[in-house]
């Protein structure tokens, strides 16, 4: 029913505010309940060491999921991020390794160069996907599925199927260092989140993303260059995947060709749990961050309880579907 | 005489909001009964209860004197009530016959489908209705109007005794509408009862013999259409006096606002020329598919014309994308606000600001105070009724949604307003407000080009009218020298 009339709107306003409250904070509430339950049931959960550990575990998926949020908001999807993690990881590693055989000639180069190269690789992958999706109207699912395969293949070709070990300590800092006890990856995640939040909520580009995802026809008629927006979101996702790849190799000390397999699934899971609609136009990056934290906390909690990781996967599956079921009920009524 | 359908005291609320407070209705055999009311009057809720989609909170529904209860649309159909919905739901990759007999295909041996029998009976049904559609063609190859006709044929194929038609002509042209009316008259002669729901009063007076009016979710009155005139019916629908149905205070000036010369786009439009002056409302009338919308698409950079010149304010211009058109002061209110006008998943404010984002973000970051101010200004100017401007635009009534689309463009201070069916699906009260907005804009020196398939609207609002037929112009006439008959005649 329409709610045009003022007198009708009064009763509705209450329920609308309730709905908004659940929509905006429901996921946050779920997160707090999860944390509360785990703190009560396990004494180690709320220790500084464990919290830092959870955040560290979450940081890579968090960065990927934030990039994924940009793409999904425009009705797209990026299945290639796991492979881009590996490709960017191994290419950048080859610039900052002290191994004589695995690196390129002249390595190790300065850290900044390694990071710059890794970012460029991610951006290039995203740009190819973005170009194909936006210019040639190939469905995002197909395009990025192709990129998933191609980037993995390129990773194996580049490294000859072998890992690149012995990364320089300076490079490893971004994965293992800390500032006043806060792990560097966590700081990086915080910065990525803050910038993304600002872009999506406070800038012209953010408004464009929501408009293109909500109704591309209306966006186009309103003078928005939808091709460009669709292109740029894949570049963002690719760039962040490249960055995540370097965080991963920096943390483990070597870049593995099989790194990042199935990472796209965790990233999509975080976005979906965070309440972003796969049909585009609706969702918040804050939700994505909490979604990533929920996955991280859940894995950690189950680890602490000594539950096998096999069961964790089953629970994660249930969580993803459950979150969307709640969403449907909320949006379309019971 | 026994009533085919009788409804009393029907009530339905959603989360504490009453959508229908007192639905009353009586349908006699062999009549066409118009169900009238503005947007939000409770008509759709009423229909959905009768279809078995919503469960009523209270009230009685009697079918030929017998109390009935529908749990699903199948129940309603089984009791002889068919509803032709406004929103179409065809299966595009199936044939017309398959769509008509979906779920009740004639059986052949071994559990297969007797396609020959199905196609034959579908074709007979279409031929009886004089709809020029082949039963074996694929649904996706039909125009919107043809799909609507198939939907009508489908409802009639159920052999229902009570047939509801919800805005059946909103997507079809005048000629097809006449076919539909012929079909309705035949059904009426067979003793069936037809309930006709439409905002178009001229159609109601043409086809219906009795009426029931709902307002604010409750029954207001009913009677024979012979006993009421048009202003009287409008008064009942809106609940207050409307002095004039149309508002026209503008006067064309001698300066040209926009001029189009020999505009062509292959297979869509050919050799279209016209010029609209400042202060003028220039109407474009034609059937669906006559190439009306395509003219606007070419002018606004949504489609590439193959030939032709466009002049705005005396200077020849090239428009290759909507941003070019907008920079020249053009604004386009599209035909289907849900499909191309609004971002339904976002707020009223976001929608109002959607076409002005670069202006509101001089340094990339949005000036949020300016967004809020713009939204407030437009809501005040157009009296958009919304509890808050952060609420989803999907929660507004059709008329208010249309005013949001207008607000989005007026925020840009346009010089030339391109309006495609500006009052489609809008109730009588809001229609008048929209006419006022259009008229004020033209009176202040703006140029308006308005497409409409409602003859009364075209004649009531335009200074001159161009008639479109099969992608070509069939002539331009001033409002004094033309009338409804000649417009229809020229367009077919």
From TrEMBL, chain A:
<keyword id="KW-0997">Cell inner membrane</keyword>
<feature type="transmembrane region" description="Helical">
    <location>
        <begin position="180"/>
        <end position="200"/>
    </location>
</feature>
<dbReference type="InterPro" id="IPR001851">
    <property type="entry name" value="ABC_transp_permease"/>
</dbReference>
<keyword id="KW-1003">Cell membrane</keyword>
<feature type="transmembrane region" description="Helical">
    <location>
        <begin position="85"/>
        <end position="105"/>
    </location>
</feature>
<keyword id="KW-1133">Transmembrane helix</keyword>
<feature type="transmembrane region" description="Helical">
    <location>
        <begin position="111"/>
        <end position="133"/>
    </location>
</feature>
<feature type="transmembrane region" description="Helical">
    <location>
        <begin position="231"/>
        <end position="248"/>
    </location>
</feature>
<keyword id="KW-0472">Membrane</keyword>
<feature type="transmembrane region" description="Helical">
    <location>
        <begin position="140"/>
        <end position="160"/>
    </location>
</feature>
<feature type="transmembrane region" description="Helical">
    <location>
        <begin position="268"/>
        <end position="295"/>
    </location>
</feature>
<dbReference type="GO" id="GO:0005886">
    <property type="term" value="C:plasma membrane"/>
</dbReference>
<dbReference type="Pfam" id="PF02653">
    <property type="entry name" value="BPD_transp_2"/>
</dbReference>
<dbReference type="GO" id="GO:0022857">
    <property type="term" value="F:transmembrane transporter activity"/>
</dbReference>
<feature type="transmembrane region" description="Helical">
    <location>
        <begin position="54"/>
        <end position="73"/>
    </location>
</feature>
<feature type="transmembrane region" description="Helical">
    <location>
        <begin position="21"/>
        <end position="42"/>
    </location>
</feature>
<keyword id="KW-0813">Transport</keyword>
<keyword id="KW-0812">Transmembrane</keyword>
<protein>
    <submittedName>
        <fullName>Sugar ABC transporter</fullName>
    </submittedName>
</protein>
From TrEMBL, chain B:
<dbReference type="InterPro" id="IPR017871">
    <property type="entry name" value="ABC_transporter-like_CS"/>
</dbReference>
<protein>
    <submittedName>
        <fullName>ABC transporter</fullName>
    </submittedName>
</protein>
<dbReference type="Pfam" id="PF00005">
    <property type="entry name" value="ABC_tran"/>
</dbReference>
<dbReference type="InterPro" id="IPR050107">
    <property type="entry name" value="ABC_carbohydrate_import_ATPase"/>
</dbReference>
<keyword id="KW-0067">ATP-binding</keyword>
<keyword id="KW-0677">Repeat</keyword>
<keyword id="KW-0547">Nucleotide-binding</keyword>
<dbReference type="InterPro" id="IPR027417">
    <property type="entry name" value="P-loop_NTPase"/>
</dbReference>
<keyword id="KW-0813">Transport</keyword>
<keyword id="KW-0762">Sugar transport</keyword>
<dbReference type="GO" id="GO:0016887">
    <property type="term" value="F:ATP hydrolysis activity"/>
</dbReference>
<dbReference type="InterPro" id="IPR003439">
    <property type="entry name" value="ABC_transporter-like_ATP-bd"/>
</dbReference>
<feature type="domain" description="ABC transporter">
    <location>
        <begin position="247"/>
        <end position="490"/>
    </location>
</feature>
<comment type="similarity">
    <text>Belongs to the ABC transporter superfamily.</text>
</comment>
<keyword id="KW-0472">Membrane</keyword>
<dbReference type="InterPro" id="IPR003593">
    <property type="entry name" value="AAA+_ATPase"/>
</dbReference>
<dbReference type="GO" id="GO:0005886">
    <property type="term" value="C:plasma membrane"/>
</dbReference>
<feature type="domain" description="ABC transporter">
    <location>
        <begin position="5"/>
        <end position="241"/>
    </location>
</feature>
<keyword id="KW-1278">Translocase</keyword>
<keyword id="KW-1003">Cell membrane</keyword>
<dbReference type="GO" id="GO:0005524">
    <property type="term" value="F:ATP binding"/>
</dbReference>
């Amino acid at each position: 029913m329409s709610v045009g009339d003022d007198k009708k709107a009064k009763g509705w306003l209450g329920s609308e505010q309730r709905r908004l409250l659940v929509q905006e904070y429901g996921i946050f509430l779920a997160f707090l309940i999860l944390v509360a339950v785990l703190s009560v049931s396990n004494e180690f959960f709320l220790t500084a060491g464990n919290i830092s550990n959870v955040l560290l575990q979450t940081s890579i998926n968090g960065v990927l999921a934030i990039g994924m949020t940009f793409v999904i908001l425009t009705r797209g999807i990026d299945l290639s991020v796991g492979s881009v993690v590996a490709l960017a990881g191994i290419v950048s590693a080859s610039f900052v390794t002290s191994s004589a055989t695995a690196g390129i000639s002249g390595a190790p180069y300065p850290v900044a160069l390694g990071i710059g190269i890794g970012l460029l690789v991610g951006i290039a992958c995203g740009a190819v996907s973005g170009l194909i999706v936006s210019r040639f109207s190939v469905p995002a699912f197909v395009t990025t599925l192709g990129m998933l395969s191609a980037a993995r293949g390129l990773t194996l070709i580049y490294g000859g199927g072998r890992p690149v070990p012995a990364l320089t300590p300076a490079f490893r800092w971004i994965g293992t260092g800390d500032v006043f006890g806060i792990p560097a990856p966590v700081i990086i995640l915080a910065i990525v989140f803050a910038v993304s939040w600002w872009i999506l909520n406070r800038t012209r580009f953010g408004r464009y993303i929501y408009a293109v995802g909500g109704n591309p026809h209306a966006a186009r008629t309103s003078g928005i260059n939808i091709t460009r927006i669709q292109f740029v979101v894949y570049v963002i996702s690719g760039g962040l995947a490249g960055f995540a790849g370097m965080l991963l190799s920096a943390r483990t000390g070597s870049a593995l060709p099989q790194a990042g397999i199935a990472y796209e699934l965790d990233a999509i899971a975080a976005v979906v749990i965070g309440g972003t609609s796969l049909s585009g136009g609706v969702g918040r990056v804050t939700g994505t961050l909490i979604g990533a934290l929920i996955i991280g906390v859940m894995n950690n909690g189950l680890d602490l309880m000594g539950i096998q990781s096999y069961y964790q996967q089953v629970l994660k599956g249930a969580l993803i579907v459950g979150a969307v079921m709640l969403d449907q009920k909320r949006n379309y009524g019971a | 005489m026994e009533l085919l359908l009788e409804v009393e005291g029907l009530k339905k609320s959603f989360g504490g909001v009453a959508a229908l407070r007192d639905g009353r209705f009586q349908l006699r055999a062999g009549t066409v009964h118009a169900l009238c009311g503005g947007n939000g009057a409770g008509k759709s809720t009423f229909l959905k209860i009768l279809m078995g989609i919503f469960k009523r909170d209270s009230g009685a529904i009697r079918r030929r004197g017998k109390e009935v209860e529908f749990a699903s649309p199948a129940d309603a159909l089984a009791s002889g009530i068919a509803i032709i919905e406004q929103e179409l739901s065809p299966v595009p990759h199936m044939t017309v016959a398959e769509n008509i007999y979906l779920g009740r295909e004639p059986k052949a041996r071994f559990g297969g489908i007797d396609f020959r029998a199905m196609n034959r009976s579908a074709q007979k049904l279409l031929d009886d209705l004089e709809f020029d559609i082949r039963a074996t063609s694929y649904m996706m190859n039909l125009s919107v109007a043809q799909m609507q006709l198939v939907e009508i044929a489908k409802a009639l194929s159920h052999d229902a005794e009570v047939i509801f038609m919800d805005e059946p002509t909103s997507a079809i042209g005048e000629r097809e509408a006449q076919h539909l009316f012929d079909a309705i008259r035949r059904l009426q002669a067979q003793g069936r009862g037809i309930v006709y729901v439409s905002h178009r009063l001229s159609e109601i007076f043409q086809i219906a013999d009795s009426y029931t009016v709902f307002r604010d979710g409750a029954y207001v009155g009913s009677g024979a259409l012979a006993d009421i005139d048009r202003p009287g019916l409008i008064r009942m629908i809106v609940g207050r006096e409307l002095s004039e149905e149309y508002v026209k205070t503008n006067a064309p000036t001698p300066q040209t606002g926009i001029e189009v010369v020999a505009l062509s786009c292959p297979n869509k439009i050919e050799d279209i020329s016209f010029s609209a002056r400042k202060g003028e409302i220039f109407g474009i009338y034609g059937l669906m598919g006559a190439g009306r919308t395509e003219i606007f698409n070419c002018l606004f950079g949504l489609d590439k014309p193959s030939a032709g010149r466009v002049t705005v304010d005396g200077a020849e211009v090239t428009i290759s994308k909507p941003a070019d058109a907008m920079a020249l002061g053009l604004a386009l209110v599209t035909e289907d606000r849900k499909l191309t006008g609004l971002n339904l998943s976002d707020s009223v404010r976001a929608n109002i600001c959607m076409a002005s984002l670069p202006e509101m973000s001089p340094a990339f970051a949005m000036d949020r105070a300016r967004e809020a101010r713009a939204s407030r200004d437009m809501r005040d100017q157009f009296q958009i009724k919304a509890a808050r401007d952060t609420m989803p635009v999907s929660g507004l009534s059709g008329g208010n949604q249309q005013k949001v689309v207008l607000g989005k463009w007026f925020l840009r201070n346009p010089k030339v307003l391109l309006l495609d069916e500006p009052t489609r699906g809008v109730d009588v009260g809001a229609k008048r407000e929209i006419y006022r907005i259009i008229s004020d804009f033209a009176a202040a020196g703006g140029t308006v080009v308005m497409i409409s398939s409602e003859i009364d609207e075209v004649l009531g609002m335009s200074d001159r009218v161009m008639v479109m037929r099969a992608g070509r112009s069939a002539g331009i006439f001033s409002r004094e020298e033309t009338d409804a008959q000649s417009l229809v005649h020229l367009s077919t």
